[in-house]
Amino acid sequence: MVIAELRKLLGIPTAWAGLILGMLLPPLTVLINAPSTRRAIEDGSYPNLADLGMNDLGIGLLGPLVLGVVIVSSEYTPTGEHSPGVTQLHATLTAMPHRMRLLAAKTTVLIAVVLLQSIVVSAAVLTLTRVLHGDAMPPVDPIRLGTVLIYWVLLALFSYAITLIVRNGIVPLTLLIVNSFFVSVSYLLTKVTDLAYYLPDIAGARMFIRGDNFDYAMSPLVAGLTMTAWVVALLALGAWLFQRRDA
Amino acid sequence: MSYLRAELLKLWTLPSLRLTALLTLASTALLRWAAGEPGALPLTYTRAGFLVLGVLAVSAEHEAGGQFRTTLLAMPRRLPLLTAKAVTLAAATLPIAAIASLICGTDAATIGYLTLTTLLSAAVTIVLRQAVPAVLLLLGVYFIAGPLLRAHEDLRAWLPGDPGQLGTALPVWTLAAGVVAAAFLRRRDA
What we know:
The complex is a heterodimer of chains A (247) and B (190). Chain A has 247 residues and is mainly alpha-helical. Helices cover 69% and strands 0% of the residues of chain A. Chain A has helices at residues 2-10, 13-42, 54-57, 62-73, 88-95, 99-133, 142-166, 170-180, 185-190, 200-205, 220-244. In chain A, helix 2 runs antiparallel to helix 4 (62-73), helix 4 (62-73) runs antiparallel to helix 8 and helix 7 runs parallel beside helix 11. Chain A is globular. Chain B is an all-alpha fold and 190 residues long. Helix content of chain B is 78%, strand content 0%. Chain B contains 9 helices and no strands. In chain B, helix 3 packs parallel to helix 6, helix 3 (41-59) runs antiparallel to helix 7 and helix 6 (108-128) crosses helix 7. Chain B is globular, with a radius of gyration of 16 Å. Chain A binds chain B through residues 13-14, 17, 21, 25, 29, 32-33, 36, 59, 62, 66, 69-70, 73, 78-81, 83-86, 169-170, 173-174, 177-178, 181-182, 185, 188-189, 191-192, and chain B through 31, 34-35, 44-45, 48-49, 51-52, 55-56, 63-66, 131-133, 135-136, 139-140, 143-144, 147-149, 151-152. Chain B: This is ABC transporter permease.
């Protein structure tokens, strides 16, 4: 079951786009930004040296985001030109009728692939930063690196859960990309209410980003628990809907 | 004229387009309220809606059932078909862009920016045909590559830019994508 889901995931071209973009973008960002980062370190304007290397990992989150979306949205693509209304999910459920076991297999595959991806990327980015900026980078704290990996997995599960709920790839992709790779909407909302600090993307990043321009204090543990609570709640809703709704 | 009427009817009757337009305008209004002052800032986010609008307008024809083949059966000449699609999509987007611009209190350049964004997305989707990859590519260019490359002075002129200022890059990109789409539409099997 798990093997079947893994083969299905790796058969999707868009999943490969997510895998490759997620792996290539962060090291590329480190390289492109190297001159300006070096200048910022020299004149002391770099916001917080503890985040050197960690900041550049953010862009790779496109990878888990896309993987979380396509592992579900691909099931809702029609199987053939001449059978509108029949989706891949019908074939999947014929082979694996137990829905919760199917979801468990999907979740396992997603976590495994994203974990592997995040290990490769963070190793590449941190090594590259060490080579380029040398001593300016603080020694890597294994616990903090662990929270990076957890964040990647949680974000993948987050987009996976949303896709399970809306059964469509475009909505989560648009929402999450627009919100994660910019001065985010959530960040704008923090100006309106302090509650916005508990939105998943704002809280989640604070698991491993130290120097921040937020007025609201939050420990990495609280941040992690907040993000996990969001993911668990949405995943539970998604699973419940998946169990109840017709394919 | 019948080309235009047929294409407009197809656009008008797609529920996903109406929903996208509605959500885009609603979130623009919400962000405008959160931002607290007039300006193009909310549109830097909600231009994503205009992007999705262009994608869905085209990808709907390539879903299962192959509506596109029926379209070609009725209107076999491909370049007039493309022109009709572009004109009707622009005409349908303009009022939505105008309302969005009105909500944010910006000038006419913003309307042009948003309409061109929709047309560019439609042209890209004619080539890619599938909605999810097209959305991924376009969002990637607008929201990831754009902010990432903006720090580099020499590249800035090549980027689509912000809804606040409509440069020459976006019209040129849209035109180029339109030409590529025309080439694909003419040469490729439906």
